[in-house]
């Protein structure tokens, strides 16, 4: 039986004191780090964000607090999250693999995808990554866990792959690792010094 990303799922993993995988303070620190790194390479404040697999869009409020006026767009495959928050939080329905064909009228300074890729099959990851490579103007934050990690949290459907598998897949679409699960896009690569990469 496939996993259902309904309200009970989000209540358990994002709000329950017994199971929640992160705190508001941790999210604030993470968003601040990612914004700072993106802006360092871009040379200007982040203007727009694409948040893939955004769930209920917890990044949106933090981003808008730190960068008022930022243009936020979320994509999510949970019918519950899109039905409940789609209009109010600018979340559209899409699966990761659909990024191979899905395009917008702009490129994105920042693309975020947290806690998604390690649940997906290789073909869907590769398909979606082509879209990220093409739509990315600045930095991608691709937070995921590998065979070498102990992710905690939701292990149902977790696909254990070695870190080298993801590195190769990211490299194929021109994503350059610059630390802390951040990747400079192909258009930024000339701004990255050799010792900034891994």
From TrEMBL:
GO terms for biological process: methylation. GO terms for molecular function: methyltransferase activity. This is Methyltransferase. It holds the Pfam family Methyltransf_23. CDD domains: AdoMet_MTases. InterPro entries: SAM-dependent_MTases_sf. Keywords: Methyltransferase, Transferase.
């Amino acid at each position: 039986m496939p996993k259902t990303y309904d309200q009970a799922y989000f209540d358990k993993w994002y709000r329950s004191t017994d199971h929640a995988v992160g705190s508001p303070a941790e999210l604030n620190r993470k968003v601040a780090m990612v914004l700072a790194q993106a802006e360092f390479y871009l040379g200007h404040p982040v203007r727009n964000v694409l948040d893939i697999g955004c769930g209920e869009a917890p990044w949106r409020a933090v981003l808008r607090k730190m960068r008022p006026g930022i243009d936020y767009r979320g994509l999510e495959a949970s019918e519950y999250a899109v039905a409940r928050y789609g209009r109010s939080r600018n979340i559209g329905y899409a699966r990761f693999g659909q990024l191979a064909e899905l395009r917008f009228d702009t490129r994105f300074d920042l693309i975020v995808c947290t806690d998604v890729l390690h649940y997906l099959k290789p073909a869907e990851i590769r398909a979606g990554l082509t879209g990220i490579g093409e739509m990315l103007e600045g930095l991608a934050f691709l937070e995921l866990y590998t065979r070498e990690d102990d992710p905690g949290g939701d292990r149902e459907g977790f696909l254990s792959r070695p870190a080298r598998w993801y590195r190769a897949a990211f490299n194929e679409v021109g994503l350059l690792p610059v630390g802390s699960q951040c990747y400079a896009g192909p258009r930024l690569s000339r701004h990255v010094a050799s010792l900034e990469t891994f």
